[in-house]
Amino acid sequence: MDQSKPTNIDSRKREGGLAYELNTDGLRNIKFGKEIRDKEFLLDPDVTFLNHGSYGTVPSRIIDIQNKLNIERERHPDHWYRVNCKKYVDRSRRAVADFIGADSDNIVYVSNPSVAINTVIRSYPFQPGDALLDTNLSYGTIAKLCKDFTSRIRPDVERVNLQIDFPVLSEDYIIQKYEDILRKHPNIKVAIIDHITSPSAIVMPVKKLVDLCHSNNVLAFIDGAHAIGQIPLNINDLGADVYTTSVHKWAFAPRGCAILWYDRKHASWINPLTTSWNIGDSLDQQFFEQGTVDHIPYVLARHCLDFYQAIGGMSKIIQYTTLLAEEARDLLIKELRLEPLPLAPTLESPNLKLLKLPAVSGYPCTEAGVAALEKALFEGTSVFAVLALIQNHIYLRYSVQVYNDIDDFKTFVTYFKDFLHKSSDSLNV
């Protein structure tokens, strides 16, 4: 860490982690793009990083506080785990609840949304003959969960997989698809619904889908992994039965920080994946006490939201990222002849965009072909984005965050043209 930078922590030793606050000096007027990248993140300036959506990256001010918490824990581990940690987590939980419009009593921390969805699906009291609904746009690990759950764990439960094909030109199209599948399969008891699909980056009409599910006596479990920090949230108003989101994606938390929110009427059947000391206590206590784990990413969630607000909050951040994402799309279409995903503008994610790649010789439109092309493009290079196979076409998915600017995409254009030229030359040898 650059010792010339001002300290970012105000701590009073007797209060420990409760007193570690983010120093927001200089954040209000900081310029997005290279200035915030160089001053506030540890990203390699020689790397063109276009994939914030997968793992995020943590501001250096947050890492400063993370280091202080690590030191506090190591100075007296028992005091940390037995006395202080729960107080720190509870304060952070209240801050996250305020940010997403939820009651903190109904929030528990988990390491990621895959854990959250696994938890509620494995806990739900399905009866033989019941069905579970996911879609072809569900995140890969969730699709695998639904397949595994209904084939190995509960083979007496049916998996129903809804096909949502492109073009997706209106939310009415999506709603009609759900209406049809729920009518056709009245045994569906639980629907897993993405708030923002991944990797296809559709902002789903979740409020209407929740209402539709409830009118059909179906519980709505919302996978909002990409939601917090990217779109406005009011969980209480949404009316879902379960909601999960990753604080470590668009809200700057260290990796391994997500929340599971549940409507309190479901508390009786939800159980953590791990049975531990607090079995039989409140869900808050049960999920907190999951053996010896690293709670520090959870503790830091409130500081990360402070950072998010200090640099301008959602209105400023999303205005910047939306305009940059659209400018980048225009550039990539013009220079590389890429094609946009056929999606209604009102359903587009602000920070995530997809463009169809031209055919690249030697890389078929298969899962293996995508993996091989992604490896050839990005492994060991100073440029990184991700590729996705959607309806038998290979798409580039890029992410835009406040540390990106249009120069990143100009670099990608040059790099991709060079890659295509070299690929063509190698085939002609």
Automatic annotation (TrEMBL):
Coiled-coil stretches: none
- Give a yes or no for keyword Chaperone in this entry: no
Residue ranges occupied by any Aminotransferase class V domain in the UniProt entry: 82-334
Pfam families in the record: Aminotran_5 (PF00266)
Q: Does the keyword ATP-binding apply?
A: no
Alphabetical list of SUPFAM superfamilies matching this protein: PLP-dependent transferases
Q: Which UniProt keywords apply?
A: Pyridoxal phosphate
PANTHER family, per database record: AMINOTRANSFERASE CLASS V DOMAIN-CONTAINING PROTEIN (PTHR43092:SF4), L-CYSTEINE DESULFHYDRASE (PTHR43092)
Write the protein's name. Uncharacterized protein LOC106051678
Its organism's taxonomic lineage begins at:
Eukaryota, Metazoa, Spiralia, Lophotrochozoa, Mollusca
